[in-house]
Amino acid sequence: MKEYFLLQYKMTNRKFVKFGIPIVIGYILLLFGFIWASEYLFSKTTVLAKYLYLLLGLFSVSKLSNRGRNDFLKSYFKEYNKLRIIENCIVIFPFVAYFLYKGILLFIPVIIILAILMTLVKFNRAFNYTIPTPFSKYPFEFSVGFRKTFYIFPIAYYVAYESIIVGNFNLGLFSILLIYAVMLSYYSYVENEYYVWSYKLSAKDFLIRKIKTGVYYSVLLSAPVVFALGVSFYKELELILSFLLISICFLVTIILAKYSAYPNKMNLSQGVLIALGVLVPPIFIGIIPYFYLESIKRLKNILHD
Asked: What is the pTM of this model?
């Protein structure tokens, strides 16, 4: 069992190295990123934050409940149940620590008990029901990503609804942020070169299509929230549209950053540029053209230029 956790540790280290981040810096960034995200969530809503945080913790644990993965572990480890309980407790520990920091003591035994009970749950990857989506015409990011994260959108819409009921405008902006954060994750997947080559387009036309598709689908998914907030907080309409525009710019940046490194994953230098854009949005004016030119260079070797 000790060897298993040592292997997981080494695999995590390799991911940092592959991404171009020193191992120590990687863990520091993870820690501060987790703390910042937690603080941001609790700063935007005091009523729903603890429930959303509980769901996020359980969602993190659910990733370990894949049936194929657990069948494999069971066949190799005699102390399978003990291993799974320890594994789930390790994943849930940061959430427990933050609940303790916030003084939300009632939720600590709840999240621990549910995390342990989830060691008994196995999600079957062979589940054959296909969730219908409006994204099949232009694969592959949204058609694949939405099916994996569809349950987050009702949560985001409910958060927006609560923001209107309690008159908390910042909570409404958080719901838009949550939607776009999920959609941005769709571009972390790097498709096989064949799926890019199959587009009978030039590199320029390929990027334009990807951007149009991404913007269209992202606006489609965020429109209910933007419309509801615009009607309910009409005095803040300019700010809502500005927030939406910045989110779209960030989405375009991620799309171009993805293909500026293609067929590899994004590296540290690209991540730094994106982070600068988040901190200082006007920098997008320079970052977007840079990623665009780099993407053209990468894609010309694959597409029909």
From this structure: 0.61
